[in-house]
Amino acid sequence: MTDIAPRATRVVAKPGGRRRLNGGGPRAGTIFAFVIPFFLPFVLFYLVPVGYALWQSVRVVRRTGGQYGTSYTTFGGFEQYGKVFQNDEFWSSIGRIGLFGIVQVPVMLFVALVIALLLDTPLLRLKSVFRIAAFMPYAVPGVIAAIMWSYLYSPQLSPVVDLLNDIGLKPDFLGPGAVLWSAANISTWLWTGYNMLIMFSALQSIPQELYEAAKLDGASNWAIAWRIKVPIIAPSIVLTTVFSIIGTLQLYAEPAVLRQISSNISSTFTPNMLAYAVASGNNYQQAAAISVVIAVITFVLSFGFMRLTSKRAGL
Q1: Confidence category of residue 6, pLDDT binned at 50, 70, 90
Q2: β-pair partners for 67
Q3: Residues 68-81: pLDDT tens digits?
Q4: Could you give the residue ranges of the DSSP H alpha helices within the chain?
Q5: What is d(CA 269, CA 99) in angstroms, rounded to the nearest whole number?
Q6: In the chain, what percentage of residues exceed pLDDT 90?
Q7: Which residues pair with 70 in a beta bridge?
């Protein structure tokens, strides 16, 4: 009788205790076919630019023959980094963005967490409508959102400013003490829905049996939310916090757009704006050094936050 059953995969022992699979194991060509579409753009558009920025950051421009002589680029070691750390505008932008992150990130994540918890409660009706409404701002490109909010901030154009002036509040959203928080408001409006969706997805993976057991023990909806849900989705909160730290140090679009209507935002308002301004002056080596320093600060803060939260959680 002919055996028509599929042939089982045979494990063949090799010298040294290794084993290989015959009859159905993936081939190297198949693996590379799946890896190359990711790996090639990753190398070309990420590793190569990063390597080029590192190379540019250790080069300096020298001049021979006085003011009208010729210039040439040569290896300068850490000279560009020394100039970065001696630049008062760089430290001012770092302090400004640090204040931005300390206030904006906790507020945004708290609002996102509250919305996610509200969407997860069985008491709320029309959840899909509210979920789409909360996530919709994220679908708006950052530059478009900044232009829209700059219209609402403008004293000459904004109906909101006119209404507040009529009731005697007289706000100045673009003033020296408020323009940073006007940019923070745009970022919060843009990214709250994105962070909410991450937290809400984590909430959906919690077994309903935990809630039922808690209710049998007499726990209220408030207690279930803050004593069961929040601790369980803590990894998601940490993840969104890391994303927010990275995004804060990359802040550019919002203040760059507001700069067109406010004299209180300089070309060096944020570290990224400073790097762009320096590069616009054809000092690419200095701009590369600023970018590398920003990247290192971003890595230290995000990795340090993850290590700190992991130790507290006992991971």
Answers
A1: very low
A2: none
A3: 668 888 899 899 99
A4: 28-42, 48-57, 79-85, 88-120, 127-135, 142-153, 159-166, 179-204, 208-216, 221-224, 230-232, 234-249, 253-258, 271-280, 284-313
A5: 12
A6: 61
A7: 64
Residue 156 tokens read as 């000459």
Averaged confidence pLDDT in the chain: 87
**Minimal CA–CA distance to 154: which of 173, 167, 170?**
173
Q: Could you tell me which residues come within 8 angstroms of residue 88 by beta carbon, excluding any fewer than 6 positions away? A: none
Cα separation, 121 vs 222, in Å, equals 10
Q: Which residues pair with 19 in a beta bridge?
A: 13
DSSP reduced 3-state for 314: coil
**AA identity, residue 186:** I
Burial class (CB in 10 A: 0-12, 13-18, 19+), 285: buried
Q: Nearest CA to 116 among 140, 88, 138, 135?
A: 135
Check: CB of residue 230 under 8 Å from CB of residue 113: yes
Q: Which sign does the torsion angle of CA 224, 227, 232, 236 carry?
A: positive
Strands 70-75 and 59-64: antiparallel
CB atoms within 10 A of CB 202: 20
Calculate the alpha carbon distances from 248 to 72, 103, 207, 288 in Å.
36, 11, 34, 19
Structure tokens at 255: 């203040």
Quick count: other Cβ atoms within 10 Å of Cβ 14? 8
**DSSP string covering 240-269, please?**
HHHHHHHHHHT--HHHHHHTTT-TTS-TTS
**Where residue 314 falls among pLDDT bands split at 50, 70, 90?**
low
Separation between Cα atoms, residue 8 and residue 21, nearest integer Å: 11
